[in-house]
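FORM 12-B: Structure-to-Sequence Request
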C-alpha cells in the first residue's frame, strides 16, 4: 500500500491533513446527478481511501443531489477522529440536473442543515462558499459569506473557505471571517491562479485545486506523456506530483469511482520529479 504521508501535510484550519485527499464528486451518477452506477464500488472506494491514509474528503450535498454525502455516511460513519470532511454550498440542482445559484441566506442555511443531516454530523468541519457562474467572475460575496459566518458563530460550521473565487473575493471573504482554504480550478495547463497560490502560501492558507487532472476533459499533452514514460508512471500521476511540488499549501482531491484508479492517484505521493522533468512540465502552462 502506498504511503501517502510521503507527500507531507498541511494545515486545514486547526487540523493538519495529508496533502493527498479524495474528491467524492464522481461517486454520483452521470453528470454528477442521480445514484452511482455501482453502489458497492462507490462504498468500497471511500473505505479504501480512508484505509490508505486519506484524512481529507471533499464533497457537497448538491452532488447527486444528496448522493455523495449519503454514501460517505453509509461507508464511513461513525467517522475516524482524524477525518476532515469539507463540503460546499451556494448551488442547488434542478430536476433536469441543472446547476442553479442558491446564495441567499435562507438557502445557505438550508444547505448547511442538509449537509449536517445527510453526513450525520452536528458540526461541519469546513464549508466552502461556491461562487457560481461559468469560470471565475468578479462580484461581491459579502452577503452570502456573512450569512455563513453567522452559521459559524451558531456552532454549525467549524471553518470557512471559498471556491471558484477571484483574489479580490478571497480578500473580501477574509475581511468577514477566517478563510482556511481556497478551492479553484488549477492544473498543469490552467494556471491563472499562480500568484494567488503564492499569496495564500505566505498566509498559511490551503489551496485546493479542483479538476487537478483536467476535469471531464482529461489533460492531453505529449510533454506530459513523455515525462510519464521516462518515469515509468501514468500521465495523471505526473500531473498530481507536479501539483504537490507546485507549493507546500496545495492539497489534492482527485476523484474517481474506481478502487484501482484511486490507488494509482495516491501513488503520486511517492513520485519524485527531477529538475529536468519539472522544466519540461512547466512548458505546458506556457503553451
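FORM 12-B RESPONSE
SEQUENCE OUT:
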Amino acid at each position: 500500500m502506498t504511503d501517502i504521508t510521503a507527500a507531507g501535510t498541511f494545515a486545514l484550519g486547526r487540523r493538519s491533513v495529508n496533502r493527498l485527499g479524495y474528491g467524492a464528486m464522481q461517486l454520483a451518477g452521470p453528470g454528477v446527478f442521480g445514484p452511482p452506477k455501482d453502489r458497492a464500488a462507490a462504498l468500497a472506494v471511500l473505505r479504501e481511501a480512508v484505509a490508505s491514509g486519506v484524512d481529507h474528503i471533499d464533497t457537497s450535498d448538491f452532488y447527486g443531489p444528496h448522493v455523495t454525502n449519503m454514501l460517505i455516511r453509509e461507508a464511513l460513519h461513525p467517522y475516524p477522529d482524524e477525518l476532515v470532511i469539507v463540503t460546499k454550498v451556494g448551488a442547488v440542482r434542478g430536476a433536469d440536473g441543472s446547476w442553479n445559484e442558491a446564495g441567499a441566506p435562507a438557502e445557505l442555511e438550508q444547505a448547511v442543515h442538509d449537509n449536517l443531516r445527510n453526513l450525520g454530523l452536528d458540526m461541519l468541519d469546513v464549508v466552502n462558499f461556491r461562487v457560481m457562474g461559468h469560470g471565475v467572475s468578479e462580484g461581491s460575496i459579502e452577503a452570502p459569506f456573512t450569512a455563513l459566518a453567522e452559521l459559524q458563530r451558531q456552532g454549525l460550521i467549524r471553518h470557512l473557505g471559498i471556491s471558484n473565487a477571484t483574489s479580490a473575493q478571497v480578500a473580501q471573504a477574509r475581511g468577514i471571517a477566517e478563510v482556511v482554504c481556497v478551492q479553484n480550478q488549477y492544473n498543469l495547463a490552467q494556471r491563472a491562479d499562480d500568484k494567488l497560490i503564492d499569496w495564500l502560501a505566505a498566509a498559511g492558507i490551503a489551496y485546493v485545486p479542483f479538476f487537478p487532472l483536467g476535469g471531464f476533459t482529461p489533460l492531453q499533452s505529449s510533454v506530459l506523456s513523455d515525462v510519464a514514460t521516462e518515469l515509468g508512471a501514468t500521465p495523471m500521476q505526473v500531473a498530481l506530483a507536479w501539483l504537490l511540488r507546485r507549493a507546500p499549501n496545495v492539497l489534492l482531491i482527485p476523484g474517481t469511482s474506481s478502487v484501482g484508479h484511486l490507488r494509482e492517484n495516491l501513488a503520486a505521493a511517492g513520485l519524485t520529479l527531477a529538475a529536468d522533468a519539472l522544466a519540461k512540465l512547466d512548458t505546458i502552462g506556457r503553451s
